[in-house]
């Protein structure tokens, strides 16, 4: 099975690679609609930048950013994922019709988020991060990054199952770039199947592509496509990408060459 595509729709003034592109909620909804038309299985709406060093966003501001976009997309029949660490934002987006929760803290940031997730029928993405967005890239440190990320994800899956979320609604994510050096990221990428399944890979336009090639953030589409194809080869269930149409094309050609 080819990975499903999660299209990235940032509604933040400061997101690192497409910050400030959508001036209004209506424009953001249009962009999400175009992603769905291009082949995204789901559109991930986020109102809090989690790039390295980013400051937290207050609850009211995050809700004002994401809710009109979530509602607009649901209205048009686009499947929506809510990218948030806050239980209230999850709850409101789920009530408005979102069907997936993408939490870079794996439901650890907000003490209410496990209960909100358990009360829903949404798919939950559990991502690994070492530290917090404010500090995570200062001194990433692991004895065995693959084993430690695996153990963290196993622990979060177990906590979710104990809270009543069926395991078939849980997706694991190594959290590329979240408290990781280039070497840590590469160790994870080379060993994705060792992390369990189903997996989501988010590597689109990330700094590791710049570290490997020198490409600046606006010139990382080729590296992003290489990583999407790698995710396909490794059996990932989802890839989280900015460039939906380009990723669809790359995956379709790859799939024709790799039947079954
Ligand atoms: C990821 C993510 C980001 C990722 C998941 C960016 C919100 C930085 N990266 N969520 N979010 N996985 N699940 O480059 O890798 O988009 S933010």
Structure explained in plain terms:
The chain is an alpha/beta fold. It has a single domain (4-257), classed as Alpha-Beta Barrel (TIM Barrel). Helix content is 42%, strand content 14%. The chain contains 9 helices and 8 strands. The protein has an 8-stranded parallel sheet with strand order 6-5-4-3-2-1-8-7. Strand 1 (4-10), helix 1 and strand 2 (42-46) form a beta-alpha-beta unit. The chain is globular and about 40 Å long. The mean pLDDT is 95. Ligand 8Y7 is lined by residues 8, 46, 50-51, 83, 102, 104, 125, 127, 173, 175-176, 200, 202, 206, 240.
Q: What is the overall silhouette?
A: globular
Q: Could you tell me the mean pLDDT?
A: 95
Beta content comes to 5-15%
Helix percent band:
40-55%
Task: State the CATH architecture.
Answer: Alpha-Beta Barrel
Oligomer: single chain
What's a quick, concise take on this entry?
The chain is an alpha/beta fold and 260 residues long.
Helix and strand topology:
Blueprint (H helix, E strand, L loop, with lengths): L3 E7 L14 H14 L3 E5 L12 H17 L4 E4 L3 H9 L4 E4 L9 H7 L3 E5 L17 H18 L7 E4 L8 H9 L9 E3 L4 H7 L7 H13 L4 E4 L2 H14 L3
Parallel strand pairs: 1-2, 1-8, 2-3, 3-4, 4-5, 5-6, 7-8
Helix pairs in contact: 1-2, 2-3, 3-4, 8-9
Bound molecules: ligand 8Y7.
